[in-house]
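Problem statement: downstream parser choked on a complex file, so we are re-checking the raw output for the flavin-adenine dinucleotide run. The parser issue turned out to be on our end (a line-ending mismatch), but while we're here, posting the original submission so the record is complete.
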Amino acid sequence: MKIIVCLKQVPETNNVKIDPVTHNLQRNGISGVINSFDVNAIEAALELKDRYGAEVVALTMGPPDYEKTLRLAMAMGANEGVLLSSRGFAGADTLATATVLAAAVNKIGGADLILFGRQAVDADTGQVGPLVAEKLDLPQYTYVSKLNLSSDGQIDAVRMLDGGTVRVNGDLPAVATVRSELNEPRYATPRNIKLSFKKDIVVYDEKDLDLDDSEIGQAGSPTIVTKVYTPTATPKVTETLEGSAKEAAQNLLTKLSEKSIL
Amino acid sequence: MKMSEIWIYVENHFNRVDPSSLQLITKAKEIANGRQVTAVILEDHDQDFENTVKQYGPNQILLVKNDNLKNASDETITNVLVDLAQEQKPDTILFGATVTGRSLAPRIQGRLKTGLTADCLDLRFDDDLLVATKPSYGDNIMCEITCPKNKPQMATVRPNTFEAVVDGSSEPKINEVEVTVDVDPRVTVSDEQGSVSNTRSIGTAKRIIALGRGAQSESIIKKANELAGKIGAIVAVSRPLTDLPEFSHEQQIGQSGNTVAPDLIINLGISGAVQYVVGIQNAKTVVSVNTDPKAPIFDVSQYKYVGDAEAFLDGLIENV
Ligand SMILES: Cc1cc2nc3c(=O)[nH]c(=O)nc-3n(C[C@H](O)[C@H](O)[C@H](O)COP(=O)(O)OP(=O)(O)OC[C@H]3O[C@@H](n4cnc5c(N)ncnc54)[C@H](O)[C@@H]3O)c2cc1C
Ligand SMILES: Cc1cc2nc3c(=O)[nH]c(=O)nc-3n(C[C@H](O)[C@H](O)[C@H](O)COP(=O)(O)OP(=O)(O)OC[C@H]3O[C@@H](n4cnc5c(N)ncnc54)[C@H](O)[C@@H]3O)c2cc1C
């Protein structure tokens, strides 16, 4: 059994500022960390490794320092790391990102299961998993909170909906995007951390993946960000409720009923 | 030439139309500027979602009734919607940014090779271009995104961002079409299981009592439920409290939980982390109680009380 886990590196903080001159996001100096939801995807893969001896390949597209995220995955127990890195990949939207990831999955020789985090915490679209599934013509199991594979090539998952759950099952190979409710990620062990630095990381660019320049990066991205700004929250006028808790509560009830809110 | 159309995919769960679809119909009509607003309904023969949808006054309902659409998988729905879109060429397709919408829309985007803007908070047209406002970095940054070269233009829109308004001014035309439903044999979807306390009720609740780490004792939870019963509110929580046996993800407000838009929310013992606050920004009246006078939650509140949450709760229960 082979599992590919797709990982994204994101800015460590959500407190990103906009450059007043260029109107670009100032990401300089903010170090990157693995997207938190992707740690659950790694854990899901490692549980299958523990159970079935699955081979786990960590895959990411990004600048060379995304190697850090691959090393983390290997320190947790992934067998291999593959980095998709090229200037040509820069500026990709979700469609162009998925094109590159899908080509890499094929290059690696496919997998029984391709795992994704529920969404990236920065751009927050959650689109890359379903897009890769579509590009590879595989069934998708999104937002799963339970996931079981059987040795005879079946997948059985529970998808969490906004107001309930639904069970979805079928044949492998498949794509799954996982929720943090799925599992408790393990920590890297000292032995695996040591091992992770001994392993080579494979790097591919568009030529290795046989991709045309028009499909990747900005050229392959139908969406364009035309404006970036910091929302100016209309400051709320805050009224302090004074007195003892009881007086304050009474005071609130009076005000709410005057305004017919309660 | 055929008039350009905005399609809204009508999502349903537990035999009801998802409120996000109705909200989108109202919003689409507001920005349509001459475009046709078409609600696209896929259902089986026992279902009649068109009866609900037509009250919200789309110009047209595109209806597919087929028993293979019962518990249809994302793959099957994609097959049907892509066929329809390739044939009828809508200008724009909108989905609620629900779990279902966020799963289906990118799959369809991939097959139609077009752009999709996620989880939007606003939509408008600049000439022919759909301009979608998308929050990022935990709603700290907003961007406007367009898709100038490819069609259809697609977006998912955060639920409860717009209000659904009933509009009986004209009777929508119902256009029922026969299509072959190409069922993906690789996937089986079972019946949906509703959670005991439906999130839908959190998403659409008019009054909410929200508990955080500073209000998580058993006695506070009991009292919050008592007050909720008295004022017709629902009890919700910040993320840390979903670890308690009483609560689950279904009651969680925030970035990785639910967006709410009540008339009144009372936050007890919640600090106001940005990931929480994004979930309540559509609340009309915000009341917060916290022992820390510097708690960030106060910055987004109309009424604040600095003090103990339980004592305040006692005060409310006694006097309501
Ligand atoms: C502010 C901002 C807003 C944006 N809005 C949009 C938008 O609305 N529509 C759009 O098409 N693009 C958008 N983009 C571009 C988008 O961020 C990139 O395409 C990005 O490469 C992937 O999308 P995501 O971050 O939303 O990932 P998601 O789709 O949220 O990620 C889901 C999962 O996919 C995997 N994954 C994601 N990226 C990678 C990667 N590089 N390598 C390996 N695995 C990965 C991970 O498992 C991750 O958990 C936006 C970018 C920015 C900066
Ligand atoms: C990617 C990501 C996604 C996240 N998504 C969410 C999300 O969807 N929803 C969410 O809620 N969080 C989310 N979080 C977590 C979030 O950052 C905060 O940690 C969380 O909201 C804090 O919850 P809290 O306010 O209940 O607890 P705390 O921050 O611990 O605050 C407790 C508050 O209670 C006050 N207090 C203490 N005692 C009393 C008393 N007796 N009476 C009154 N007040 C008292 C304290 O002064 C304090 O302000 C997310 C985090 C990340 C990184």
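For whoever reads this later: Helices of chain B lie at 19-31, 49-53, 74-88, 99-112, 199-204, 218-231, 274-277, 309-319.
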